[in-house]
Fold:
Amino acid sequence: MHQEEIALYASARSRSCRRARRLLERGGYAFEEVDLEGDEGLRVSLIENTGRPAVPLVFLEGRLVGGKNGCGRWSTGATSTA
Structure:
């Protein structure tokens, strides 16, 4: 079975990011985590492209599906546009 590509853009010091990471791990999802600490250019690019200044940001196949307040909904199967 093919698993869709999941990327978690996060900050190691963020409680919300730790929660998102735990949700993904508990759900058995394989994901790539991108730490934004120290990469101001990437952080600014994400803000410009998503309009969201807060992390975590979760992308599924390149599409934003969850953020600080939406991770729980999509990880449990509920539809969310983040």
In short: The first strand starts at residue 6 and ends at 10. The chain has one domain: 6-75. The mean pLDDT is 84. The longest helix spans residues 15-26.
